[in-house]
Design brief:
By secondary structure, the chain is of the alpha/beta class. The protein folds into two domains: about 55 residues; about 240 residues, P-loop containing nucleotide triphosphate hydrolases (Rossmann fold), CATH 3.40.50.300. About 45% of the residues lie in helices and about 20% in strands. The protein has eleven helices and ten strands. The strands form two sheets. Strands 6-7-8-3-9-10 form a six-stranded mixed sheet, sandwiched between helices. Strand 7, helix 9 and strand 8 form a beta-alpha-beta unit. Helix 6 crosses helix 8 and helix 10 packs across helix 11. The longest helix has about 45 residues. The mean pLDDT is about 90. The chain binds adenosine-5'-triphosphate and magnesium ion. Keywords: ATP-binding, Membrane, Nucleotide-binding, Transmembrane, Transmembrane helix.
């Protein structure tokens, strides 16, 4: 711009050319900015395209859609291997156990040892890479996940709630349930009290994924769903660790009401006192079952469970 000013002052450059020369750098900067924005949008578009193609390439659900009805509901794992990433490190290694029909089987073990993964395979959120899983003696590998899930109630660490009223969020477990049945399930799940205290009671919206409710309240709603569904199998991922004492007691009470129903229960427990009366306790460590048996036998054995039990006793003193 300065270089062009000299001939313009001297009268050898006309005003229009001088102005054009002055605007040139601005034009260049705008052009560079435009190219940068276009390139960024193109890159984002390519990322989205890759993700869409991945969804399209996903294997279609091919399982048998016939109703999956069994006389008994024991769950058996035979040498099950599983890894979340193909060819990656195994999260479950040769897992073998039977959760007896209408018995309470507890799974305990360190964080990250593979407890929730075992339940994810029973409910067919994922497929085992090796070994066999069966319910009532029938392998579930070729049964549609939808059909298997009809037999299962799952009380999970992460409860999914729709942006809808509390009543309809619970009815989701059994669409034909009456209002009275929903309220009875909520009483058993220890949530009737806090629901009635809300301004609109059962018609209160839960907010986007239940963000208007506390963790303990969300868990109790999920227990109410399980009570209402009344399916023969119950998978429970007990997660009372992050709750305050009042909520923890309310959730534990709700769980013990839930366990009164006669079902095949597999329950992951983070506190051992809750599993003391289980028919069978599986102790998982680094993707393997390292011990199993009833509480008294495991204490006598003096292994990992006994160490965990002693540690918990010391904490509660
Ligand atoms: N969706 C996933 N994708 C990849 N890896 C996963 C996934 N879910 C869990 N894992 C990994 O698998 C291993 C077992 O996880 P899992 O959730 O089964 O442990 P857990 O015993 O339930 O732990 P916690 O007591 O903390 O709930 C962990 O190393 C975890 O990081
Ligand atoms: Mg878990």
């Amino acid at each position: 711009m300065w270089t062009a000013s000299v001939p313009w002052f001297a009268g050898t450059l006309d005003t229009v050319s001088y102005l054009l020369i002055c605007m040139f750098p601005i034009f260049l900067a705008k052009l560079a900015n435009g190219i940068f924005i276009d390139l960024t949008s193109y890159k984002n578009l390519m990322i989205s395209k890759k993700q869409i193609l991945r969804v399209i390439d996903e294997k279609e659900e091919t399982g048998n859609m016939e109703p999956f009805i069994n006389k008994t509901h024991e769950i058996t794992f035979k040498d099950v291997d599983f890894s979340y990433v193909q060819g990656g490190e195994s999260v479950l290694k040769k897992i073998a156990f039977t959760a007896g029909n209408q018995k309470l089987t507890a799974i305990v073990g360190d964080s990250g040892s593979g407890k929730s993964t075992i339940l994810n395979l029973v409910s067919k959120y994922y497929e085992a890479q090796d070994g066999m899983i069966s319910i009532g003696g029938k392998p579930i590998e070729n049964i549609a996940a939808e059909r298997v899930l009809e037999q299962i109630s799952m009380v999970d660490q992460d409860v999914f709630l729709f942006n809808d009223t509390i009543r309809d969020n619970i009815r989701y477990a059994r669409p034909d349930a009456t209002d009275e049945e929903i309220e009875a399930a909520c009483k058993e799940a220890n949530c009737d009290g806090f629901i009635r205290k809300m301004e609109k009671g059962y018609d209160t919206p839960t907010g986007e994924n239940g963000n208007l409710l506390s963790g303990g309240e969300r868990q109790r709603l999920s227990i109410a769903r399980a009570i209402l569904k009344n399916s023969p199998i119950l998978l429970l991922d007990e997660a009372t660790a992050n709750l305050d004492i009042e909520n923890e007691l309310a959730v534990k009470q709700a769980i013990s009401n839930l366990l009164k129903q006669k079902k095949t229960v597999v329950m992951i427990a983070h506190t051992l006192s809750i599993v003391k009366n289980a028919d069978e306790i599986l102790v998982v460590s680094s993707g393997k079952i390292v011990e199993h048996g009833a509480h008294d036998d495991l204490i006598k054995k003096g292994g990992k469970y006994a160490t965990m039990w002693k540690a918990e006793e010391q904490l509660s003193v």
